[in-house]
Automatic annotation (TrEMBL):
One of its GO terms (biological process) is potassium ion transport. It comes from Magnetofaba australis IT-1. One of its GO terms (cellular component) is plasma membrane. It comes from the Bacteria. InterPro entries: Cation/H_exchanger_TM (IPR006153), Na+/solute_symporter_sf (IPR038770), NAD(P)-bd_dom_sf (IPR036291), RCK_N (IPR003148). It is a multi-pass membrane protein. One of its GO terms (molecular function) is antiporter activity. This is Putative sodium/hydrogen exchanger.
Amino acid sequence: MAGKGCMDHILLLIMGAAALSVGLSVLLKRLSMPPVIAHMMTGLLIGELYGLRQDQTSLLQSVSEFGIVFLMFTIGLEFSPRQLRAMARQALALGGTQMALTSGVIAAILVFGLDIGGWEAAVIGAGAALSSTAIVLRELNDNGDLNKPYGRQTIGVLLFQDLSMIPLLLMVGLAARQEQAVALVAAETVLAALAALAVIYLTGKFVLGRALDAVSDLRRSEIFLAMVLLIAVSAAWLTHALGFSYSLGAFLAGLMLAETRYKHQIEAEMQPFRDLLLATFFIVVGMQVNIGFAWEHLGLIVVASIALMALKTVMTTLAAWRHGDHHDALKTGLALCQGGGFSFALFEAARAAGLLSEELFQWVISCLALTMLLTPRILEWVHQDGGGLLSRSRGADLGPDPARLISSDHNHVVLCGVDRAETVHLEKGHIIVCGYGAVGREAMRLLGELGHPAVAIDHQRSAVEEGAMRGDAVMFGNAANPNVLERAWARDAAAVLITLGDRRGKRLIGEAVSRLCQDPVIVVTAADGDEQQLLSGLPIKHLVRHNEEAARLLIDHALTCEVRQPYTPRICRECDDPGVKQSDCAAPLTPLSASERVDG
């Protein structure tokens, strides 16, 4: 019975957390607040309601850490060695300058102004310099500012910050072992890093591709998902066993898969796990906030938060000034003035390693949570040019666009090649063909002859490879998954053709397209009335019943002017030429009289 009581307690905890998270997300959505704030508030309330303390949430913390692991895995999928080299100029220069200035100034203030130890100050300065990728990118996308000059600068800084998490976590590990000789620690770290890189690289080059090929041939989504989870978790375990963070291995594993034909399907399969575990991570972070401490020091927390946002704005503005005019630089500074999810991960790792005291931990997470709470309103104000205060007075040469240096950018699609994946650029207004069977191949051929940009989606490896050999742009993935459609830029597509033969699959794809696009143009085939009934309720613009269309074409060809006896041939009355086919003349055709009939 004790076990039953424990299970009931766990179920009550899960139900309470889920109910609070969903309810607060709906409420805060109406206030233009991001879901991450709802998750943190859920954790704060759950911790107080259930009386949970740090020692009681250790298992939950371990589970939630894999939200960061899967996030780093998907970030690794966004990059490739070529793209990392391509973004090394502006994105790394701008991001590196911002991180160095902000973390250095904050650390100096903590050491010389507040008499905090060097390692503690370095960790707090580095964590406070990070910004929230999840909040900022979502708000910029919703406001339509991603492609504006300050939006591109913001993306460049966020890219660098995401990548900097790996060396920052390594820094925490080194700091935890500071009692050892620096040279010995450095040597051990280098050797372990080389070992991890070698194992993951060789496995990715010679094993992963063949393993994924074999799994994809089974055409079972649950087995494919299990394989992806095995890859991510195994790489995370390897690096952790060698003394590094779980996140490092996950990032390297994602990097190895970034240029494979399975990239988009892997991202689509991992997203639910990543988002759910990230939500759990922020709930656990909320549980760590001590309401009594926050209430007791509320005034100082507010002042410290405002000071942190002002300092980050100034430092980021100075870093961005040399890459654009001062208006765009100020907008970039304001967009990145908050703390981020990776900040919490870094501070949690530092506390676990004994680098941060409980009091310092409470101070930093309380301040960062408040800055994140204010971010959506600040970004909305920036979007409106601050009532005219932030309007641009002149253009600026921004150099290369950091937003176009990663594979997830506008109109990039990673496609299957025979030996390796290839990247194809699509123009806006392209057509998506769901299914690369007989009808799909013919549709792609006709679109190619017309010169219209198009991409096909198919979840069979053999079909994707055949498309690559034919020179067609074909993605590997399940078109019924909205995340796969999003990677094919369905929102920018002129139309979506559903050509596969599976009736249920057609319905699922139609539902996915209708959820993703506001006013989709869906063209689909149906074999009979039953299938047409199954597709009812979907926003289908055109439905082609191929049996009826085939019969109509057969009759059309049968009644042309080339037909001989015993049928009665017909003649075009406009051109008076018995040799004219019906398809060559739009004028109505009438039967020939007895004197006009052509002798067979």
